[in-house]
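step=encode ok
step=design start
structure_in=
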């Protein structure tokens, strides 16, 4: 059994936080006459799961919110490029419990070996998106953690570039110089645009810390985006930002649900417990996987629910 510990490395989570923050801010600006515009944008990105089309399920979701039942969200960062079906780059499950006033967050390593319902066999969890899109990924995560996923939010990583440009670029402090895909980023403090920022947060192989170093840079850039995105100078650009979100975000959350959840569950955002999935690397049939044993999975499931 592997011990769970606090995880300080932030990944695509903050992109999702930015998205939610923007929508919550926009939803609260009804007096400024933009509610209808925001509602139209949210309708545009609304993509229900098959189970959401069931009227009984819709009523159950509504009842759960009204009764302050714990809710689970799958935050999905997807790397989609031209002529590529795409794979999930980051998967984070967040459960929000308004009664305990605690939110619990766990990141699933993309090489984790899981049962893939769409493929009817075992594979890396990030391959679930290639076989079944969001629907397949939700099912794989539910099977792996043995918990229901109520809502998902998917962000296309390519849209990261446009979000940085929409807020006028960000200032970063690069720890060491490196080059990625013909883009050279020198050491030191500097202002970067969206194109450079995308390379900055994607580089992994040249970093001595590997993926952990990449996550640190992602945390840095996203924190800067949030700072600039909440400034009034950025809020007045809301039509442009909404268009970017329309192109790069997909969710089964409706605007009224976003508002109801924000009002009823905001107390649970005061304490965010972050846990890390512990496992070990193992090669099976020539493929390297991250293996999580059943005891660890049970512990995580209990923590989340």
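sequence_out=
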């Amino acid at each position: 059994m592997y011990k769970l510990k606090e995880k300080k490395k932030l990944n695509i989570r903050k992109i999702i936080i930015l998205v939610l923050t923007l929508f919550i801010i926009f939803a609260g600006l009804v007096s400024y006459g933009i509610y209808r515009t925001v509602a139209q944008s949210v309708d545009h990105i609304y993509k229900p799961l098959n189970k959401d089309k069931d009227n009984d399920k819709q009523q159950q979701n509504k009842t759960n919110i009204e009764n302050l039942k714990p809710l689970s969200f799958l935050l999905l960062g997807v790397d989609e490029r031209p002529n590529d079906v795409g794979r999930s780059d980051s998967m984070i499950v967040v459960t929000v419990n308004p009664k305990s006033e605690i939110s619990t967050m766990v990141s699933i390593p993309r090489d984790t070996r899981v049962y893939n319902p769409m493929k009817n066999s075992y594979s890396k969890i990030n391959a679930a998106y290639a076989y079944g899109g969001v629907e397949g990924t939700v099912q794989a995560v539910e099977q792996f953690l043995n918990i229901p996923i109520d809502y998902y939010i998917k962000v296309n990583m390519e849209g990261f570039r446009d979000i940085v440009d929409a807020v006028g670029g960000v200032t970063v402090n690069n720890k060491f110089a490196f080059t990625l895909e013909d883009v050279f980023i020198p050491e030191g403090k500097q202002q970067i645009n969206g194109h450079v920022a995308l390379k900055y947060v994607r580089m992994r192989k040249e970093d001595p810390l590997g993926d952990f170093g990449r996550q640190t840079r992602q945390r840095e850039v996203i924190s800067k985006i949030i700072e600039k995105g909440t400034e009034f100078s950025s809020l007045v650009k809301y039509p442009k930002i909404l268009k970017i979100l329309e192109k790069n975000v997909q969710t089964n959350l409706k605007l009224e649900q976003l508002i109801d959840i924000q009002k009823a569950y905001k107390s649970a955002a005061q304490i965010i417990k972050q846990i890390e999935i512990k496992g070990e690397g193992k090669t099976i049939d020539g493929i390297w996987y991250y293996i999580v044993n059943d005891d660890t999975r049970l512990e995580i499931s209990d923590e989340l629910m």
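step=design ok
step=annotate ok -> The mean pLDDT is 78.
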